[in-house]
Amino acid sequence: GQVARIVEHADATEAERAIPLCNAGVVCAAAPNLFRWLSGLRNDNRQGEYYLTDVVAAARAEGLRTTAVEAPEAELRGINTRVELAAAEAETQSRLREAAMLGGATLTDPGSVTLAWDTRLAPDVVVEPHVVFAPGVTVEEGVRIRAFSHLEGCVVRANAIVGPYARLRPGADVGQGAHVGNFVELKAATLGAGAKANHLTYLGDVSVGAGANIGAGTITCNYDGVNKHRTEIGEGAFIGSDTALVAPVRVGARAITAAGSVITEDVPDDALAIARGRQANKPGRGVKPRRKS
């Protein structure tokens, strides 16, 4: 049948209150008709209010077809409080997780994983507990996302490993078989196939070549207070622990930076760069400060 009119509960008859359907507040109509009906609304009801739902009766009066569409409560749940918002989010997350798993991804603790509406997880992806996917994430086949990682606006290529406790920010592109380990942050960074940054590293505005190794504590100094600058690290390069790469700078293919270096100039292919203070040992000087006066 067709909808004759929509009546507020306070204005409804007993027979009308017995109808097991309620209005969810969604109306679809041709805009010119809708505005014409709105201009003709009246407030001759108990509350003295103008009811937008009276447009249904107006359409019927013109002989137009008025059809009701039934939908599950979850599709039409009203959100007026933070509690209702949380309930709607929980329902949406449940659907997204189910779709991901039916598509071939493994969520080891589904209830702790947060997905975005556009998260794309390929078959054979494994997602460990407490991972957050913000919008714009694509994860290819065979990837493992370890616990407590946060991904946004990034691509993770096949068979790569991310985390635990990794952060991929917008513009991150993790290459096939690459590793992004614990407490590593990538932003506008491309990590080539098989490259590794396994610990305590910030890589921002950088391209890292295939097979390169980024030592613990490495940072790209990409911001001079006004502008961002890029760093290039060649394929097979070895960046020693605690290296600071002051952009713009290039480290060549298969080049090595010594641990603790501050690299401010380009490093040629196959070269070793050492940029740190020279160690000086003073015999016996370690004993004197420990003597009691």
Automatic annotation (TrEMBL):
The keyword Cell membrane does not apply. Pfam families: Hexapep. Signal peptide: none annotated. GO terms for cellular component: cytoplasm. Gene3D superfamilies: Hexapeptide repeat proteins (2.160.10.10), Spore Coat Polysaccharide Biosynthesis Protein SpsA, Chain A (3.90.550.10). One of its GO terms (biological process) is cell wall organization. It is found in: Cytoplasm. SUPFAM superfamilies: Nucleotide-diphospho-sugar transferases, Trimeric LpxA-like enzymes. GO terms for molecular function: glucosamine-1-phosphate N-acetyltransferase activity; metal ion binding; UDP-N-acetylglucosamine diphosphorylase activity. Its main location: cytoplasm. InterPro entries: GlmU-like (IPR050065), GlmU_C_LbH (IPR038009), Hexapep (IPR001451), Nucleotide-diphossugar_trans (IPR029044), Trimer_LpxA-like_sf (IPR011004). The keyword Signal does not apply. It comes from the Bacteria. In the C-terminal section; belongs to the transferase hexapeptide repeat family. Catalyzes the last two sequential reactions in the de novo biosynthetic pathway for UDP-N-acetylglucosamine (UDP-GlcNAc). The C-terminal domain catalyzes the transfer of acetyl group from acetyl coenzyme A to glucosamine-1-phosphate (GlcN-1-P) to produce N-acetylglucosamine-1-phosphate (GlcNAc-1-P), which is converted into UDP-GlcNAc by the transfer of uridine 5-monophosphate (from uridine 5-triphosphate), a reaction catalyzed by the N-terminal domain. This is UDP-N-acetylglucosamine diphosphorylase/glucosamine-1-phosphate N-acetyltransferase. It comes from Roseococcus suduntuyensis.
